[in-house]
Input
Amino acid sequence: MLAEALSGRKLSYKYWHPLFFIMRKVLCLVLALLVFASVNAYVEYVDCNLELEDEYAIANIMLYIHSKMPANHFSVTMPFHKESAILSINDSLGTIEDYALSDGILRIKTNSSARRRDEIINIEAKLFGLEKERFGNAIIAEFSLATEEKTRVAFRAYGKRIFGFDTGAAFRGSIRDYELRIAGAGPLIVRFGYSDKGKEYGRFLLFNESTLSDDALARGLERANELYFTVPAVLGIELDSNIFGIAVLKDEKYREKINDYSEGVYITGGLIVVKESAFEKDAAPVVLHELTHNFNAKIMNWNSSNTSWFDEALAKFVEYIVRKQLGLRTANLFYGTQSYSDAQYSYVIKPASDWRLLKEYYDKNESFMMEWSADAEGTRKFGYAFVELFLREYVKEHGFGALHRALRELAEIKENVSDARRFSEIVLERLGTRLEPCKRETSEEMLECIEALNKFNPKIPKASVLKLGTERKESVIEFNINDIRRKNIEERFNDFGESLLNFLEKLIRSTEVLVK
Ligand SMILES: [Zn+2]
Output
């Protein structure tokens, strides 16, 4: 009996805010506005602390000014957070009275005294309206700090449970004990997620906005936590954070807020959002797919183009590996329908996309995948299958070592890249390959390549992992694949027992009818 036709799991994509477009605008603005009375003076270093309260934040900002020529006083003009109230401004001589804040521009003149080369200005202000988005109790806030390009910047936010962040090129961040620290140089824009609620499940901080109970979500989160190592093991890179925020929404709410085709999404600012129906089956592949986007956003924080082919390739590959570890069936890419049955039903899983589309792509010399984004409805299915095929072929041909080396190089890039093709060229150059998976002379050879990649079941490497944070660290992630396999077998056995029991009950009921 053909009860259900499954065409693979629904796709998930990354919700990309125009954060980095804003950033480029601010960058120009900032450089034009930050000027000093003395031409030789500049801000060497900015130390900014943000204490989060319920309705506002208290900012404590220290500007370290240095001048080649000694001066009696210094004048600073800087863009400042729009909705704010200055509480006090001081320098080394005491309170500064001579300042003005209007239209988002703060003008300060330090106290006059004997000529000096160095001065420290301390600004204390109350900031409102940092909140940009909200998913139940999880809040995404945005903060920006104007500086010159060469100014070193340290930023710290605390006072609430901070569970994620994103920032631009040339900045690195760490989250420890729910406190965020960021270090880098130049103008800073940061989005970060925080809350005073949430329930911890290992590395995940859950915001349950669904109709399911916390206990119903626990199993999926525990599995995701057990298989967490898959993400750093595939990427060879880990974030310096031991907590990741995840909000689970009712399906209608998810459709309304995000879209109607995905199951999960990564929100810039550090929040994974998943719809509740994903937790009715194994949710770990979706959760870890979205977690991969979180990691990618730090590795490629210099990508301000809107192409997401490489980002999705890595996320789909992690998802594939996770499904393999869990013993879940996965739709074939481009070719090969799967049929199977359990005690009750028969199933058919159609391949994700069609190999004839891939052939056509090469025959027509197309190259739109170099600019592909998951938002493009017309090429979405094809694109997801294409990028997954690409990464499987890459790892099969070159190994995880080559992927790890390339990602480490990409993580070093500090200049923003806003052109999609330029971004793709940089990525492919570091990988040492072309964006042409299974491109072959004949259809037979292409199908052979596709089939081999559909059977590809790579061994997860126990490699050294680079920790991306305010400091550079290497670590080895410990995992025991046999423990996970044993647990899977136990769970499958229990599930099997349950379905066998259901089947027997049905059989008994139908037998009863016959007896009557
Ligand atoms: Zn995705």
Residues 481-515 form the longest helix (35 residues). DSSP finds eleven helices and 28 strands in the chain.
